[in-house]
Design a protein that fits this description.
Layout: H1 2-23, E1 44-46, E2 52-54, E3 62-68, H2 73-92, E4 95-101, H3 106-116, E5 122-123, H4 127-131, E6 139-143, E7 149-154, H5 159-169
Parallel strand pairs: 3-4, 4-5
Antiparallel strand pairs: 1-2, 3-6, 6-7
Helix pairs in contact: 1-2, 2-5
């Protein structure tokens, strides 16, 4: 009987944590990042697809820097929003997206993108989340065309939120 109670309690706690993560909204009012107003940390290296990436190649365009994992419920919920942003950026040439996978495997990420769309560069460099002081995924940063971090979001983002911030900050 005691084992059942313990198992039930653990199950309720785990379910509560998953629900909290899944329904946590994005917020630029979350604890402020020390990177706001600073030059974006260097993001450079080989993508999981084997291509070269350098954030400096995106100068002149806005960049969404996204940290995610395929096992993260809010990351899964926000992914279609990133796909919408990618399409907007392709249509007008004003926005790029780059992602860094957090505690996940290249195989899981490749399968996730095949199943859910998106073709932006994804890096697996473990130092990038440290450089950005990532606390949990998803977290995203909006970088202006001059390479300055202008917004920080914790939790899932929406395309409308990012586009609204771009309009406000332009």
């Amino acid at each position: 009987m005691t084992i059942r109670r313990i198992a039930l309690t653990v199950g309720v706690v785990v379910a509560s944590l998953v629900a909290l993560l899944a329904f946590a909204g994005a917020s630029s009012d979350a604890p402020s990042s020390a990177l706001l107003g600073q030059r974006v940390p260097l993001i450079k290296g080989e993508t999981l697809a084997g291509e070269s990436y350098d954030i400096d190649a995106s100068r002149g365009r806005w960049v969404v820097v996204n940290f995610f994992a395929t096992w993260c419920p809010p990351c899964i919920v926000e992914h279609p929003e990133l796909v919408r942003l990618e399409q907007w950026g392709q249509d007008n040439g004003e926005l790029d997206i780059v992602a860094t996978v957090f505690n996940d495997t290249p195989e899981n990420v490749a399968d996730f993108f095949v199943d859910n769309g998106g073709s932006w560069p994804v890096l697996g460099d473990p130092s990038t989340p440290i450089d950005f002081q990532i606390r949990r995924v998803p977290e995203s940063f909006l970088v202006d065309p001059f390479g300055v971090v202008r917004a920080h979001y914790t939790g899932g983002i929406t395309a409308e939120q990012i586009l609204g911030d771009i309009e406000t900050l332009s």
